[in-house]
Amino acid sequence: MWPLKNSENLRGMLAVALFEQGLFIERNLESHLGGNHLLNNLCGLAQLAGYFEGPASERWMKILRRDLPVQLKKQILPDGGHYELSPMYHCLVMSDLLSAAESLRTVDAGWVEEHLHEPVQRMGGFLAAVLHDDGDIPFFNDAVLGQAPSPMDLFQRLERLAGSEVDPAGEKVAAPNVLTHSGFVRLKARGLTVIIDQGRLGPDELMGHVHSDALSFEVSFKHQRVLVNRGVYEYTSGPRRNEARSIRSHNTPCVDDYEQAEIWSSFRVGQRRHLDEHFFIETGDGWRAGGGWRTPGGVSIQRSIILTGQGRLEVWDSIKGEGSHRISIPFHWGPSLEVRLCSQSPFTQGLGACREWEIHGQDVKFYGKTYSHPPGELLAEPTTWWPGFYREERIERLKFHQNSADLPVLVWTVFSPFPELLAETDEIWKDQAHKLLNDPALMRK
User: Fold this and answer.
1) Please, which residues have CB within 8 angstroms of residue 412's CB and are 6 or more apart in sequence?
2) Looking at 334-392, which runs of residues are DSSP E strands?
3) CATH class of the domain at 1-167
4) Does domain 183-445 have CATH number 2.40.110.10?
5) What would the pLDDT profile of 31-40 be if each residue is shown by its tens digit?
6) How far apart are CA 101 and CA 112, in angstroms?
7) Domain extents in the chain
């Protein structure tokens, strides 16, 4: 057995294999798919062009100079987000671009600085602005933990490449973070981090990694994930893949089981319902974000998410239209958190009902209330969370449900780790319910 480490023969074999891979990529660029696939092809060629010399390397550099700036302009949004709007694929693309830049510095440092430094720095700024306080990504569109390089690794590589210091905890990236082009909003107050998706589902030309998650949001509190989207179990076509992409796996309202995107197979999307509107407002005591869309049946769904500076989270959902409809508004709670339903109180003067509830964990406790007009059913039920490929954990879901509700419907979900902040919510509901039932546009003001 000859020592592999010192084997010139092995190094030669590996070099031949790498060169052949470069020739294959050159002939088979995934231009028909585009997106992260094509960028991955180009960044692979960049690494090989930085390693080899000769006519093939020169051809690869010619392809890179022609195609890579075009794709960066198309795929990296002005706010730094990757246009497929998946935080996981954002990290994968950013890693590929860093590898390309690292490899090509010895070939053409000027070209690297001119064409790669600014986009990858922009991507680093975006990433720092969408992370949870645990330093990792939220689950929007296809996203799980552990599949892409960690944000911390990417920030360190970016600093070595361009001298750009990025704060991985986001402490130097002042909240609120409103990423206009990608549609993400991050709010922070008293240890709470709220990340909201109020953008497009994805680029119409490339929807393979899209989920029905518009107006969904995630919450963490002091480095613990509290409210989560369910993630992804696998890419293989089947029940779990369909479930992961469906609207019911996200913290967003659902009417008559309509999806925001018509999904099938593993990566197929037909008709899609992007948001008709979205908004962000700084109030005197916090922030308000949200938007609205309309189902194929003509029902209008509007959501407004508020985080007060004191640390109270409010979710107003207004559903308007004609006739009776089935309504579901789920909230998926993180691992090791237990939902406990408490008392229910009816209101007079046609103001519906209120149900109190609590979320219990080892190191965290939340106090919540759900107000609704007309009254509905509040359920605590088991479900699953997929934080990584082929990983499944049991979690609990709190779901507001009306099987046949006459519209309009107004639901207000309010919760906080600080119980004193719920003391006056009955009066707020009494003051706001009639106004919002008559004019949902007030939620944006």
Assistant:
1) 314, 315, 316, 317, 370, 371, 372, 429, 432, 433
2) 338-346, 353-360, 365-373, 377-385
3) mainly alpha
4) no
5) 999 999 999 9
6) 6
7) 1-167, 183-445
